[in-house]
Amino acid sequence: MIVTVTANPSLDRTVEVDRLHRGAVQRALTTSVDAGGKGVNVSRALVAHGRPTRAVLCSGGFAGLELLALLRETGVPLREVRVTGGIRSNLTLAEPDGTVTKLNEPGPRLSTSEVDAVLDAATEAIIGEADWVAGCGSLPPGMPVDVYARLTERAHALGAQVAIDTSGAALDACLAAGPDLVKPNAEELAECAGAEIRTLGDAVKAAQVLRDRGAGAVLASLGADGAILIDDSGARYATARLDAPVVSTVGAGDATLAGFLAAGGTGEHALRTAVTWGAAAVTLPGSSMPTPNDLGRVTAEVQRSIDPDRVLTK
Ligand SMILES: Nc1ncnc2c1ncn2[C@@H]1O[C@H](COP(=O)(O)OP(=O)(O)OP(=O)(O)O)[C@@H](O)[C@H]1O
Ligand SMILES: O=P(O)(O)OC[C@@]1(O)O[C@H](CO)[C@@H](O)[C@@H]1O
User: Which CDD domains does this UniProt record tie to the protein (predicted)?
Assistant: First the structure.
């Protein structure tokens, strides 16, 4: 069972436009709404593949009610923490060539007791049930920067492994608690390691910095370039070939983490599955998560020998 924790979930509104013109009044072609937030997406992807999961998340305001209703439709088992502030709505402006512009709100301010309630709800969900806990996404205002470190300590005390997918100070702060896995994208990895990432070799070195600071393994997603996994047995690189156009990259990293954990959370098979699920996600609109039917569009390949000079596309 994989428990996901999303302190800052969102309603993800995707608005499709012909072409984005800054400063102009534009008419949308279509709009859609998905239940969002990184851990919520991981749970949605797992449910779509019939894998046991539970999503722990904050909910508040009318947006929170809509989020819960959407999640119930998708069949994700929930453990909600009611908070006073309304949860956020994040906007994606999608253009037909696959370009997305994303505006993420900060989220509601949480009180100290609401922060404790999130950690307690996560602990209850873990007890006796979870093999893995995934703490995912940005922290809402009021949430202390060490919350993922605290989640890691609690989960380890209960015998569960921990994966963290976050950015900035929250990523920095979780490393000392020794999460079993972190899943940065290239930008988050560069910021956390304090290094420029231009090549695959740069990405491997930066991932090693995060391991030296406490992460057990690093699964770094590299956008169109695939993903690398660095753990005790070395570095591996996986790429994916797509049989379909790129529609929306939003949530691809979450599908990647979901695939990795669904396939055991370690090793080559998990890396291949991660890249397959991630690449399948980009062929779908908005922040839709792939189902088993979507995976046939992807051919993934894992390489043990990595060309350190290979220049990354983003
Ligand atoms: N343009 C693309 N073409 C093919 N595959 C892609 C593309 N962009 C992303 N992917 C796939 O999705 C995975 C995750 O992408 P990325 O590194 O952009 O995640 P992310 O930034 O964490 O995404 P998000 O935060 O929106 O979930 C990649 O490892 C790759 O398999
Ligand atoms: O602001 P955060 O928490 O970093 O990211 C939130 C978010 O962009 O992540 C998901 C895609 O990965 C979306 O569902 C959601 O809108």
Answer: FruK_PfkB_like
Our mutation pick for probing the ligand 2 site, out of 87, 93, 104, 167, counting the most ligand atoms within 8 A of Cβ, is 104
Predicted confidence (pLDDT) at residue 205 exceeds the cutoff of 70: yes
Query: How deeply is 19 buried, as exposed, middle or buried, from its count of CB atoms within 10 A (0-12, 13-18, 19+)?
Result: exposed
Label the pairing between strands 53-59 and 2-6: parallel
CA angle 259, 261, 263 (to 5 degrees): 70
Amino acid 47 reads V
pLDDT in tens, 268-279: 999 999 999 999
Q: What is the pLDDT of residues 60-90, one digit of tens each?
A: 999 999 999 999 999 999 999 999 999 999 9
Residue spans per domain, the chain = 2-303
Is residue 223 within 6 Å of ligand 1 at its C-beta?
yes
For strand 298-303 and strand 234-242, is the pairing parallel, antiparallel, or unpaired?
antiparallel
User: Cα dist. 156→64, 148, 167, 180, 274 in Å?
Assistant: 30, 12, 21, 10, 24
